[in-house]
């Protein structure tokens, strides 16, 4: 993480995961709403190519492994100097962050394989990963020798890490509706765009991995204020991106398959039935919706082909 490419790689990872979550969650939400049902959010979404494939999970395992190895090998594998003093302390901190995300990916894969794990253990490991992420960043920002700009760029995203953690807890508790999923994806998206931006603020990027500091005056109060304003801009722009993605998904489903939903203020609690992606209303691959009456008659249809007005 302590270089230009270290921040950019982490940022791209979060951006891709968040956008994937948004597209999949909005699609399932709109399809469920068109049938008067509520969706069940997921901690991951499969890519279906002939059959469901856990590509997101594999991505969530491989990326932090690369980051972990990068932190371990950079500067040699050593944690104490010849006098017994601890060295590479920041690297060790980063390794623990990557390590817990690796464990989350593995537990997510085991859940996908239906291994006999504790219930929702993949959610628990995701929660721990983001909680420790926030705690580690707090202490990272307050390490001795940090200048004001470097401190503030690490302090500002901490609340997003805890926001994602809260969304995960609520999702574990209720397992219903789209809002926990949207909150989680929005928080992760903003972490991704922020870390990518921070890379350009703090480091030069004319060579790999771009570990040299930029010419930005890290002690200038004006630069600290600018950084705060930029973080607010990330919150603003990413909210617009979230809304835009929802509208694009909705318009696509409406134009291609005629799927529409009622306006939010016209719906009441009596309009909803619970929709669980793991229950019999869906095929095991989660891609085909089964209407109860059709299922009794041995008929089924794709969610994209359902007429919500039927």
TrEMBL record:
<feature type="transmembrane region" description="Helical">
    <location>
        <begin position="12"/>
        <end position="32"/>
    </location>
</feature>
<feature type="transmembrane region" description="Helical">
    <location>
        <begin position="182"/>
        <end position="204"/>
    </location>
</feature>
<feature type="transmembrane region" description="Helical">
    <location>
        <begin position="235"/>
        <end position="257"/>
    </location>
</feature>
<keyword id="KW-0472">Membrane</keyword>
<keyword id="KW-0812">Transmembrane</keyword>
<feature type="transmembrane region" description="Helical">
    <location>
        <begin position="120"/>
        <end position="139"/>
    </location>
</feature>
<feature type="transmembrane region" description="Helical">
    <location>
        <begin position="53"/>
        <end position="73"/>
    </location>
</feature>
<feature type="transmembrane region" description="Helical">
    <location>
        <begin position="93"/>
        <end position="113"/>
    </location>
</feature>
<keyword id="KW-1133">Transmembrane helix</keyword>
<feature type="compositionally biased region" description="Basic and acidic residues">
    <location>
        <begin position="283"/>
        <end position="298"/>
    </location>
</feature>
<dbReference type="InterPro" id="IPR006904">
    <property type="entry name" value="DUF716"/>
</dbReference>
<dbReference type="GO" id="GO:0016020">
    <property type="term" value="C:membrane"/>
</dbReference>
<dbReference type="InterPro" id="IPR042127">
    <property type="entry name" value="TMEM45"/>
</dbReference>
<comment type="similarity">
    <text>Belongs to the TMEM45 family.</text>
</comment>
<protein>
    <submittedName>
        <fullName>Uncharacterized protein</fullName>
    </submittedName>
</protein>
<dbReference type="Pfam" id="PF04819">
    <property type="entry name" value="DUF716"/>
</dbReference>
<feature type="region of interest" description="Disordered">
    <location>
        <begin position="283"/>
        <end position="310"/>
    </location>
</feature>
<feature type="transmembrane region" description="Helical">
    <location>
        <begin position="151"/>
        <end position="170"/>
    </location>
</feature>
């Amino acid at each position: 993480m302590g270089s230009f490419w270290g921040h950019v790689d982490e940022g791209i990872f979060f951006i891709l995961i968040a956008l994937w979550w948004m597209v999949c969650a909005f699609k399932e939400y709109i399809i469920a709403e068109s049938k008067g049902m509520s969706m069940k959010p997921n901690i991951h979404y499969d890519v279906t190519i002939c059959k469901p494939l856990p590509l997101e999970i594999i991505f969530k395992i491989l990326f932090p492994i690369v980051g972990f190895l990068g932190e371990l090998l950079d500067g040699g594998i050593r944690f104490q100097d010849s006098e017994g003093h601890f060295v590479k302390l920041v690297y060790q901190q980063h390794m623990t962050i990557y390590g817990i995300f690796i464990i989350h990916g593995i537990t997510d894969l085991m859940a996908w394989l239906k291994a006999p794990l504790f219930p929702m253990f993949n959610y628990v490991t995701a929660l721990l990963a983001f909680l420790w992420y926030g705690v580690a960043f707090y202490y990272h920002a307050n390490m001795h020798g940090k200048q004001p700009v470097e401190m503030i760029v690490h302090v500002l995203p901490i609340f997003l890490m805890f926001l994602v953690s809260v969304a995960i807890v609520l999702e574990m508790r209720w397992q219903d509706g789209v809002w926990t999923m949207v909150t989680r994806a929005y928080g992760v998206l903003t972490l991704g765009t922020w870390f990518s931006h921070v890379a350009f603020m703090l480091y030069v990027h004319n060579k790999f991995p771009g570990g040299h500091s930029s010419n930005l005056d890290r002690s200038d109060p004006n630069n600290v204020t600018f950084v705060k304003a930029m973080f607010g801009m990330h919150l603003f722009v990413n909210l617009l991106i979230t809304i835009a993605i929802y509208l694009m998904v909705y318009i696509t489903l409406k134009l291609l398959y005629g799927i529409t939903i009622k306006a939010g203020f016209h719906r009441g609690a009596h309009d909803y039935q619970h929709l669980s992606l793991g229950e019999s209303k869906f095929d095991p691959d989660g891609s085909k919706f089964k209407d109860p009456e059709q299922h009794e008659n041995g008929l089924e249809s794709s969610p994209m082909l359902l007429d919500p007005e039927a």
